[in-house]
Here is the input.
Amino acid sequence: MKNFKLLSTSALCNSSYIKPQRMQYLLEDVEYFWDFYEAFDSVGILLFLPEEESLLLLKHIRPCAMLREEKTLSYELCAGLVDKQGKSLEQIAQEEILEECGYAVPISRLQKIHSFFSNIGLSPTKQTLFFATIHPQEKVSEGGGERDENFESFLLKTSEILDFLKNPNISKTTSLAYMLQWFYIEKMEKNQ
Here is the structure.
């Protein structure tokens, strides 16, 4: 992974990714305000390698985590922003799998699982979650994401899902935790 060092934080003036807003509303004829930010929706994809009996996850260095605790490493799904006009969620998910993980997966193999609000107290954004089975012969590049991204691939054995989920020392996103539970229930428990 690339070396990371926090240099500073400052007030946000202008961003292509988030726009701070203030909403004014009435509740039982009493006026209130709510601060929030507009942002892009996103997709997240859980990838299963049956030949390895493993799930392909990403280990990210997330700068924001450093503001909270010293460790910045987070385990996550392959994911990306819905920021490409005219493309379906499935097309964006397919592109993210190729860009981040290096696998060329047909759209027909993407299974939409659910959509959730990502951070409902701060933003109206939603994340749509997908599942896809991938195979070694579909690996066409090393992946790795864009220049400013900092992650590496991680294979989680399906037999280790519950231990991974229960371990409080492993930082993970809520979407990853949800998808691991979904996989365990839908693909493992039902096949026992």
